[in-house]
Amino acid sequence: MNTLRIGILRGNIEIKQFLRQKESVVFTIFFPLLLLVIFGSVFTQSIAPGVKLSQYFISGMIASGLINSGFQQLAINIPTERDNGALKRLRGTPMSPISFFIGKVILVFLTMLIQVFILLLAGGLFFHIRIPNDGTLWLRFIWLIILGSACSTVLGVAMAGVIKSGRGAPAVVTPIVLVLQFSSGVFFQYNSLPTWMKQTAAIFPLKWLTQGMRSVFLPDSFATQEVAHSWELGRIALVLIGWLVAGTFLATRSFKWSRQ
Amino acid sequence: MSAAIEIHDLRKSYGDHEAVAGISLTIERGEIYAILGPNGAGKTTTVEILEGFRDRDSGTVQVLEADPGALGIHGSSWRNRIGIVLQSNSDAAELTVAETVHHFSHYYSKPKDPDSVIALVGLTEKRDARIRTLSGGQRRRLDVALGIIGAPEILFLDEPTTGFDPEARRAFWELILALKAEGTTIVLTTHYLDEAEALADRVAVINAGKIIEIATPLTLGGRHLAKATISWQEGGETKKQISENPTHDLLEIAKRFNGEIPELTVTRPSLEDIYLTMIEGQK
Fold first, then answer.
1. Closest residue, chain A, to B106 (C-alpha)
2. Is residue A95 part of a domain?
3. How far from A100 is each of B177, B190, B277, CA to CA, in Å?
4. Across-strand partners of B35?
5. Residue B103 is nearest to which of A13, A85, A94, comparing CB atoms?
6. Is residue A150 one of the residues assigned to a domain?
7. Going along B128-271, which residue ranges are E strands?
8. Lowest mean pLDDT: which of A118-127, B41-50, B198-207?
9. Which residue of B has its CA nearest to A16?
10. Do A231 and A200 meet the contact criterion of CB atoms below 8 Å apart?
11. What percent of chain B clears pLDDT 90, i.e. is strictly above it?
């Protein structure tokens, strides 16, 4: 179990490095908060008695938080570490690649928890976001978070293998995330989008993750407003597992320890 | 015990360019072996094949009795026995020296004591400094600390003293000689001929992917047989004499003076002179 022990030590090192880069901490904490303030202030109208539109958008923002902490963070962080020689140096040591990935998973998990916690806390305190108070919903919330983060993590690693340089990474990754957010029901209500856009978004995991989060934060009666008139939890799990498997396959194929 | 490194007819091409064109060499255990050559000669490609970072096209390679191109599941135990100092890094900028060296020590089965290694490379005063605040030379010494923390049997050093001031280079040489005294095999690539001369037991000169010569620094290119130049001041001008028997000729010159010969020097071609002649002769 040396691989696990070193993986946990890697996680510690990853977190130290993350916390000491002020820009990344500020971005991780304040960007979701900023979005929450904007959405919470704009969307004050009710979509049902006692349910504000902001309740709809908190679902999308939490789903986005999982994409930010995994996919976006790793697809930028790994190419940067490839450019500065960190990965090549590690490859020259006996450290198992599995330990390296355990470290990244710990980093993703921590930044994801920070984002989700801040969104729920600020949303509950200032924007009347109703936090689920039912054990079943919390259980659902937890498996969505775990599966969504896992999916987001492996896709971030896979993307990192395709991206050529750390400096160019944000320019590739940020538009992908933005387009997915616009088309997956994060910034607009999903059922108000044109059909072609909905169908395209339905190929990617963010749409399904957002839908799953709606099932946690909106009353059960809202299920009828979904495309299939239900939350489709089984299908959400299947799509996410599918992307997790495909992402893992792509990540192991595309990963590069150095620029050749 | 077999040699530390054995290479036979190693070849590697990038497209049409043959970067390594049939290199064979043997590096014995415990020796410091310098690989010299101009930029693009194939030094880094050769060393990276030995380190397991690059594939080769053909030839056989054995490093500590294993093929670095086909390690498979044995990669970890093999890497446990080697240390690598790569060219220029800028990683781990936000960690401190002590955090990084301690962390890397966990990767190895029998690491050296991290604090002694930090002291050995002269970074004790900087142990709690963030890596991004280190000077180029300090940064390089940290690279060396990370290369030796696992108590490697073979240490690869790629241009280790680039950016060092003369004092730091001398201190670094002492460190390398101390590692050799512990029995570490050291493979060094460098641009500094005086460094190769001060450290290496043997040097291999590589150009255009081929070995030109393998010799000790003192005998490379027939240096020990080369004629000496005697230079001195006489009658208000600098005199020079090329000599096959400098001791004899010197005594002759000394007879013309009453004791001391003014501004006397006796020089043989430096390793750098020999090296440049060899590389020039290849063109």
1. A6
2. yes
3. 34, 31, 48
4. B189, B204
5. A13
6. yes
7. 154-158, 185-189, 202-207, 210-215, 228-234, 237-243, 265-267
8. A118-127
9. B95
10. no
11. 55
Considering only residues A244 and A57, tell me which one the structure prediction assigns the higher pLDDT.
A244
Q: Are A100 and A90 in contact (CB under 8 A)?
A: yes
CB contact under 8 A, A17 and B94: yes
Q: How confident is the model at residue B30 (pLDDT cuts 50, 70, 90)?
A: very high
Q: Does A136 fall in a domain?
A: yes
User: For residue B257, how many C-alpha atoms fall within 13 Å in the half-sphere facing its CB?
Assistant: 15
Nearest by Cα to B232 from B259, B265, B260: B265
Q: Contact at 8 Å (CB) between A204 and A182?
A: no
Give all domains of chain B, ordered by start, each with its CATH number.
1-81+153-162+183-224 (3.40.50.300), 82-151 (no CATH), 225-282 (no CATH)
pLDDT per residue as tens digits for the range A169-187: 999 999 999 999 988 888 8
Number of residues written out for chain A:
260
* pLDDT value for B74: 81
pLDDT for residue B283: 65
The half-sphere exposure of B200 on its side-chain side, counting CA atoms within 13 A, is 28
Residues of B in contact with A96 (CB under 8 A): 76
Q: Answer yes or no: is A260 within a domain.
A: no
What is the domain count for chain A? 1
Half-sphere exposure of B86 (CA within 13 A, CB side): 21
Give the pLDDT score at A1. Answer: 67
Q: Interior CA angle at A245 toward A240 and A248, to 5°?
A: 120
Distance from the A95 Cα atom to the nearest Cα atom in chain B, whole angstroms: 5
The token pair that represents B125 in the structure block? 């005063």
Contact B83, B152 (CB under 8 A): yes
Rounded distance between C-alpha atoms, residue A123 and residue A65, angstroms: 14
CA distances from B241 to A30, A202, B1, B248 (A): 78, 87, 49, 12
Between CA A189 and CA A223 the distance in angstroms is: 14
Length reported for chain B:
283
Over its C-alpha atoms, chain B yields an Rg (Å, rounded) of 22
User: Cβ of A135 under 8 Å from any chain B Cβ?
Assistant: no
pLDDT at residue B57 above 90? yes
Residue type, B258: N
Sign of CA dihedral B47, B50, B55, B60: positive
pLDDT digits (tens, 9 = 90+) for B223-254: 788 888 899 988 888 988 888 888 888 888 88
> Is the Cβ–Cβ distance between A172 and A158 less than 8 Å?
no
Tokens of B165: 């001031």
Q: What three-state secondary structure class fits B7?
A: strand
A93 touches chain B (CB under 8 A): yes
Which domain range does residue A185 map to? Answer: 2-254
Alpha helices by DSSP H, listed for B33-165, are 43-50, 75-79, 97-105, 114-120, 136-148
pLDDT > 90? residue A130: no
ipTM score of complex: 0.89
Residues B106-148 have pLDDT tens digits of 999 999 999 999 998 889 999 999 999 998 888 988 999 999 9
Q: Which residues of A188-207 are buried (b: 16+ CB within 10 A; e: fewer)?
A: eebeebeeeebebbbebbbb
